[in-house]
Amino acid sequence: MTQNLNLFQGILFPSNSCFYYCPTNTLMVLQHKSCSYNRKCDNLQKYQGIHSSLPGSWKLIDHVEKCSLQAQDAYVHDGGELDAFPHIQTLKVFPKEELFAKVVMVRFDSTILLQKQLDLKTQVTSAVSTIKYLFEAGAKIILLSDWSMKINSKLPVVESVADFLSSVLQLKVAPSRCISNFSLSKKEELAKADILLLENLSEFKGELANCSKFAEQLSSVIDIFVNDSFSNSHKILASTVGVPPFCSACVAGFHFEESLCQLKSLFHEKPCIAIIGGGNLFDKATAVRYLASRCDGLVFVGMMAFQIMHALGLHVPLNLLEGGALKEASNIIQLARNRKIPILYPKDFWCTTNDFPKQMEIFPAHGILDGWIPVDLGPKALDEINSLLRDCKEIIWIGPVKFRLPSQVISGASKLVSTLDKLTQSNCKITVIGNMACQAVMKESSFVSDYNMVENASAVWEFLKGRKLPSLMALDRAYPFEIDWNAAYSHPFQPLVVDIGSGNGLFLLAMAKRRKDLNFLGLEINEKLVRRCLDCVHQSSIMNGYFIATNATSTFRSIVSSYPGELVLVSIQCPNPDFNKPEHRWRMLQRSLVEAVADRLASDGKVFLQSDIEAVAVRMKEHFLKYGKGKVSVEDNEESGETDRKGWLKENPFGVHSDWEQHVVDRGAPMYRLMLNKVLLPTPLMK
Fold first, then answer.
1. Distance (Å, whole) CA 507 – CA 520
2. For residues 402 and 381, what is the distance between their CA atoms, to the nearest angstrom?
């Protein structure tokens, strides 16, 4: 840590000679093709390897611009972007060493892990892997979920569920009934077992109500929250939405991430056909319109088919119509016509009657007699579906082949699966969504592993409607690109200094010129300022300075975690006071950011805080001391400089002012500065 200890040496220059001038017309230079900056720019890539489209020396700039355009790939419908999936922190990329000895709460999906018949070749594998991975990393694990007798009638109480999970995980899971007295008894029980299972959440009203007190009770003494229940992502629950704000880190588990990736991969192949089952078109109309806007054809195999037929002017018995669905069906048909894509509805049905349920007859779609009720797809309907799907490269099947009355002799779903099986062998990508559709595939298919399956359709319907999923939004954000630090810095293993809210970059640019032995990173939410700063870096051939356009409050941890060297200094200078009031929802210095800084800072690393408003400086200090988990303290030596009677540093210890700081100093107003130091916490060997 000699680099860190000498952080202030050699940079205490007079304040009137410490500024690096960045031209005000730098945005004009972005269009100039003779930029001399060419330092490994070709290596910067978007996440998952998608390269920048701009030539040669402009790829670094394009990389920054893409940060603000990450939702551009989402299709626009109904006047808004389908941006329901933000970039989030996942367990896969979360530093494994930070899990050791931490208390980790896992919200698992009971509909997957508690099934009577577990198939470890499907989604169960990833759900099990989440828990085993945490166990192998040395974490203390608390499992949490809700369950009912419908999932598994043999699991009525927490003790039987714990035994069942023990057999699935091949690890000892201890039952616990300590939710009501969580913080007191949990510590004692964790000392005896590495994995605890809490009581059934469905027994607590605070779960469905997302009660903040209940959520705080659940999360007491929890360090890290892992959400692995994607099927509940559309719900607002205490265990998925209420708990995250009380934890230092909140990430998606392996199963959650796998489900997310499956949905993100939709609509990538052409031609793409959507098979739409089930009913309630009025509620799902927005989602169906989205499918119509992205797919090359729609096939209706459920009750929605009758609403489409009615809008086309065909005769449909009144008992098969949904209230308010006519207008929505007409809009879907018009959209399909505008895009010149086919809409296929069943041309015939197997029907039965209430009086003679075993009597089955085939009726044409437009000629179903009164008293007869459709229960299955007819042979002509299946032939037409087979014909349309023959040349598809992607098929999305969402919702069951289901009509008004259940029947034991329904074969439409099994025949549909038989058709899809053949297509899987011709490199057709097939995604099946919904419990009944997935069950049909698992029962009838000979190639189950070739399907992508998402058993819970509710969250997917909400996604297709363009709505943001509450439990997804509650997780920590991640920076949406992989950063090639070798391209950003000439020596990427040097100690790192991060300026949060770097503004015009004057502070970092001047520091970078003076300390070649350190790398400097500016995190700024304003993309225009970042582009200016990067242009200054290019023109001045600065090899140890870099800027990223991002909201550091949510992405700091994921960005810094990927850096190969040590983080030795974090500075937060003159944040906007209007955005730092305690009641302001989007204030920069939130608990998650403080905890991330405290976790990632190297031993004996420093945090520099300053503001021209004393109340803001005091609030920042209090936040670090409160949420820093005992890892940071006010520096009590004279290394940083002389202090006034209130403990504020009289001078900037670096001798390098930010742009706003210089403005304040020029008008003779005071600055309130403070240096915090990373505290080395005692380990068991030190006690």
1. 10
2. 14
